[in-house]
Amino acid sequence: MSNDAVIEIRNLSKIYRDFWGRKKVQAVKSLSMDVKRGEVFGLLGPNGSGKTTTMKMLLGLLFPTSGEMTILGKSASDVSKNERIGYLPEESYLYRFLNADETLDFYGRLFKMTAAERNRRADELIEMVGLGKARRRQLKEYSKGMARRIGLAQALINDPDLVLLDEPTSGLDPIGTREMKDLILRLKAQGKTVVMCSHQLADVQDVCDRIAVLFQGELKVLGRVEDLLEVRNEMQMRTSNLSEAAMSDIRDVLKKHNITEAAFSRPRADLEELFLRTVRESGERPGRRFTTEEIAGKSGGQA
Amino acid sequence: MDFDVAPVTLRDLAESLKLWLILIGILGASGLLISMLLSVARNGVAGIGIFFKGLLSFLEDAGSISPRRVLALTNLTLKEAVRRKALLVFAVFAVLLMFAGWFLTDSNERAELQVGIHIAFILQTISWLMLPVVFFLSCWSLPEDIRVRSLHTVVTKPARRIEIVLGRIFGMGIVILIVLVAMGGIGYLWIVRQLPLEAKSQLTCRVPVFGHLQFVNPEGQPSLKGINVGDVWDFRTHIQGNTRARGVFVFQGIDDSALVMETKSAGDGSGTLQVQGLRMECRFESFRTIKGSESSIREGLQAQYTLSNNPREEAFGLFSQSETLRPLADALRDAQFRTAANRLDELATKVSADGEAAKNKQPAELQPTDYMGLQLGAVYAAGVMRYRKDADLESAMLAFQKVAEEGAALITKISSEAEDKNETLPGLHEAFAQSLRKLAAVLNQEADTLYEHLPKLEVPLPSFHVAEYHEGAAQNVKFVPRTVRFSADAETQSRFLASLFEKLNEADQLVEGDGLKFDLATQLQSEGKISAENSALVVDVLAEQLASGQLKVAGSKLSVADGRRWFHFFDSLIQKDLLISADDEGWMMERDLIKDLTQEGHLRVEVSCLNEQMYLGMARPDLFIRKPDRSFMVGYGKALVNTALMMMLIIVLGVTVSCIVKGPVALFFTFTFYIVGQFFHEFMQEILYSPTQQGMGAIASAVMTAQHRNPQIGMDVSETTQRVVQGIDAVPRAILWGFSQIVPDFSIFNSAAGFVENGFDVPFAETVVPAFLICLGFLIPCVLIAGALLKFRELESK
Ligand SMILES: Nc1ncnc2c1ncn2[C@@H]1O[C@H](COP(=O)(O)OP(=O)(O)O)[C@@H](O)[C@H]1O
Ligand SMILES: [Mg+2]
Hints:
Chain A is an alpha/beta fold. Chain A has helices at residues 51-59, 100-109, 115-129, 144-155, 174-189, 201-207, 225-229, 244-257, 271-284, 292-302; strands at residues 5-17, 23-36, 40-44, 66-71, 74-75, 85-88, 162-166, 193-198, 210-215, 218-224, 236-237, 264-265. In chain A, the strands form three sheets. A six-stranded mixed sheet of chain A has the order 6-7-8-3-9-10, with helices on both faces. A four-stranded antiparallel sheet of chain A has the order 2-1-4-5, with helices on one face. In chain A, strands 11-12 form a two-stranded antiparallel ribbon. In chain A, a hairpin with a 2-residue loop joins strand 9 and strand 10. Chain A is globular, with a radius of gyration of 22 Å. The two termini of chain A are 41 Å apart. Mean pLDDT of chain A is 83; it is low at 298-303. Among the domains of chain B are: 10-22 and 66-203 and 635-791, no CATH class; 315-455, no CATH class; 484-592, no CATH class. Helix content of chain B is 57%, strand content 14%. In chain B, the strands form six sheets. In chain B, strands 2, 3, 5, 9, 10, 11 and 19 form a seven-stranded antiparallel sheet that branches. The longest helix of chain B is centred in the first third of the chain and has 37 residues, at 111-147. The model of chain B has no long low-confidence stretch (mean pLDDT 86). The chains are: A alpha/beta, B alpha+beta. Adenosine-5'-diphosphate sits between chains A (16, 24-25, 27, 45, 47-53) and B (796-798).
C-alpha cells in the first residue's frame, strides 16, 4: 500500500437486496482502483452505472457486499475519517427549513471548530459560492443551482483534505458549471484530493487528471485523460480564420509538398465519443476491461 | 383512585434497580447474541470477527460522544419542530380554553367539584393535545430524515449515530418542555381566573397522613374488619352505634410538623387569635337502619373521635384473639395484673397437662389457636414494652419474651411431622408452662409498677355530625387544638392528682404545722387548673384521710401512711367513689396532643358512632390527618412534571423504534406500547399473578379439550409428556412476564394529575421519582439500542 493512495478499493462489490434478502441489482462488480493524493479523479459512467453507490460505500452510508477499501487510511465505517472529508451528495440533501447561514453553522458545529472559525469559514464559503444575497433565506426557497452551491459550501466547511463530489455540475447553468470546474482546479491547487463522478463528459475532460469509466457496475477503463484521448494517426492544424483562397492554396501546397508544419497538432477525440464507444464495446464483449492503447487505437481506426 | 400510596423506600428502589439490571442484562445478552448470529448468517465464519469489530466500534462511538455535537443536533431538532409548526398545538389549546369556560363553569355545583373539574380539564387537555404531537414527532422525524436523505449529509460529518439519537431525544424533550411550561402557565392562570370566587379557597394541595385501620368489635375485642351492612361493595365496613365498636386509625410520624395554625375568635369577643392544632378530615359513610323523618335523614349520625394513648391495649390486645385467652387479655388491659397472673398460672397448669396428654396420645385441652394466641400475644407485648424504652418494664418484657420463645419452639414442634414428636413434646410443654409461671410471678411482683408505667390516656373529643350523603368537604374537617381539654376518666384523674401532689410535696407546699396548708385549695386551682368545687372536694377528702390516719405528716412533707405511692393512694380513693366530680363538667383536664398523646410519632384515633342501631362505615382512606396545605401551584407543577416525563418516555420509545422501521410502523409500535402500558398493565399482572387465572396453558387446554377432560382432573398423558406440555406452556407466560416487566405502567404518570384534581398534594417520592426513574430506565438502554440500530443499518436501503 503506497502512502500516496488516499483511497484504495479492492474487489469491491455491492448487491442491493430487497427486504427479504433477495437480490435486486448488482450495482458494483469487483471494483479495484486507487486514488492518489493531490489528484482530481473522475468516475465516469452513464446513469445507473454504480458511481454513486461506490461513493456511498466509501463514506460508510452503504455497506459493501464484499471487498475491501480504505479511505484516508481508515476503514469506511470509521466515523472519525469524516473529520477530513467533504461530501457533496448527488442532490443537496440538506435541511430545507434552515437558511444558508444556519446550515453552515450547523454542519460546522459537527466538527471541532470554534464559533469564530465557523463564522469566518461560512463567510468565505458563501462568498465563494456566490450566495451572499440569499444567505438568510430558507433552503426550501432555493433554486436547484443555488441548492447545489450551498451543498458545495457545506462540503467544504471543514476545509477537508479529500473532497467527494457526486455530479457536481448537475443543475448548474453554463456559467455555474464553469465556476464549479474552476473551483475544483482551485481545490487541486490547494493540494486537496478530489474525487468526482459525472455522466457529463465535458466536466471530467477539463478538470480530471485521471478517470475511471464504469459501466453497469464494472470498471471499463482507467487512466490519464491525455492518454485516453490521444489519437495517433491523425493530424490537426489550427490557424486563424482562412479565406476561401488561402484554403485552396494550402490544399495545393499540402498536395505538392506533403510536409508537416509546426502548427499542426494531434487532435483530441471528444470524450463523448470515447464513452459511446466503450458502451458499444461493452455490449459486444461484456466483462472485459480495455487498455488505454486499445481505446486510443480504436478511436483512430474509426476516423 | 387511592390517594393513600404506600411509601417508596430505598429498599424498593434497590429492588427495582436489581430487576432493571437483570432485564438489561437479559436484553443486552440476547441482543448481542442475535446480532452475532445475524452477522454469521450473512458473512459465514468471518462474521464473528465482523461482529466484534462492529461491537468495538460501537463502544468507541458511545465512548466518544461529544456534547458539542449532541447540542448541535439538539438545536437542529428544536428548530425543525419550531419551523415545522409543532407549536401550533398552542393555538388549539388557546381556542379550547376560550370556549371551555362556557361549558365548565356552573356555580350551582359544589365548590370542590368545580375545582376538580377545572383542574382535570386543563391537565387532561394538555396531555391529550400533546400526545399526538409527541407521537408524530418522535416516530416520524428520523424516518423522514432518512427518506429525504438529509441524514446522509449529517452522518458523513463526524457525527456519531448515537449522537443523532441523543440529539433527537433531547431536542424533542426541550420542545415538549417549552410547550408544557407555556400551556401549564396559561392553564394555571385560566384555572385561577375561571373559578368562581367561592371555590377558590378549595384550590389547594392537601397533604394527608393516612393511618392504619383496625376495628374493635361491639364486645370490645380487636378485629380486622367491621360489620358488613349488606353492601355488595365491601370497601367500607361498619361499626355499630352505641356499643364498644370502634374504628381505630393509627397514624405514624405525627409531630409538630403535622400541626396547623387556625384562626379562632377569642372567647371573650375581643377579636381573633391563632391556635395551633391538628386537622383531621374524614369521609365516613353513615348507614341508618331507621330512616325516620326527612329531618332525621338530614341529621345523619353523631360520631366521635377519641384520641387515645393506650399502651396496654396495644401490648395485650392481641391475646384476646383466642376465646380461652380473653379473660387474660381483659385483665391485662384493665391493668389487673395480679388477676392476670392467676389466669396465667391456670393456663400453665393446662399446658403441663397437655404435655402429659401428648405423651399418652390423648387429646389436648388447649387448642392450637390458644398456643398461637399466647405466643403471638407475648411477642407483641414484649415488642410494645421494648419500644417504650422504659427500664422499669424490663423484667416484664423479658418474661414475655421468654414466653414468646418457648411458645415458638413448642408450636414448631406441634405442627411438625417429626418422628420423635411425642417424646419431645412433654418437655417443650413443660418449658412453656414454666415460662408462663415465671411471667405470672413477675406480673404479681411488678403489678403496681406496670400499672404506673403503662398509662392509659383517652381523650374524647366533641361529637360531630356525619351526613348520610356528602354535602361538601368543609364540614368533614375537624380541628383539634394542640392543648386538648377533656373530661378525664378515673385512671387519668388519679395519675394527674398523684403527679400534682408529688410536685407540691416536693416544693413543701402541702403541709403547715401538722395539718394541710390552709390555701391548698387555691393552690390546686392555680397549679392544677382544677375547678373551685373540685379543689375544695380534694382538700376535704384529704383532711379526712389525714384525720383517719391514712395520711401522715413527717416534717414538711405529707406521705401515705402505709408507704404506698400517691398514685395508688388516689386510685383507691377514686375506686371508693370519694372523688366524684363536684362540678357538672367533670374532672376537666388539659393535655398536649403531641407530647402526651403520641407515642414515638404514633397517634391513635378511635372513631365511634353514638346513635343506637345506626352504623358508621369507614375504610382506611376515610380519615386522614391533614398537614399544612401546600400551595396549589406546587402540586400542579408536579403533575405537569409527570406529564412531561410521560411524553419523554414516549419520545424515547418512538425515536428508538423509528431507527429501524418507517414512520407508520414506528407509530404503530409506540402507540401499542402506550396503550398496553396505559390500559392493560394491570390486566397483565392479573393474568400473571392472580390465582384464579393460573389455569392451564394453551396446549394443555387443547389436549384436555380433545380428551374431554376437565381442568380439575388434568390431562390423560404420561408424566414426561405432561412436563413437556407444561414446559411449552410456560413460554407464553414467560414472554408475558417479560412484556409486563418491560412495558412500564403508564398509570404512574397520570396518577399525579389525579392527586391534584382531588385536591391532594402529589407525593413526590411515590409519584414523581418513580416516573423519573422509569424514564431514565428506558432512556439508557433505548439510546444504546437506537444508536446500534442506526449504526448497523444502511441509510440508503429503501
Ligand atoms: N437503494 C437502492 N436500492 C436498489 N437499487 C439501487 C439503489 N440505489 C441504486 N440502485 C441501483 O444500483 C445501480 C447503480 O446506481 P447508482 O450507483 O446510483 O448509479 P449512478 O450513480 O452511476 O447513476 C442502479 O441500477 C440503481 O438502480
Ligand atoms: Mg449517481
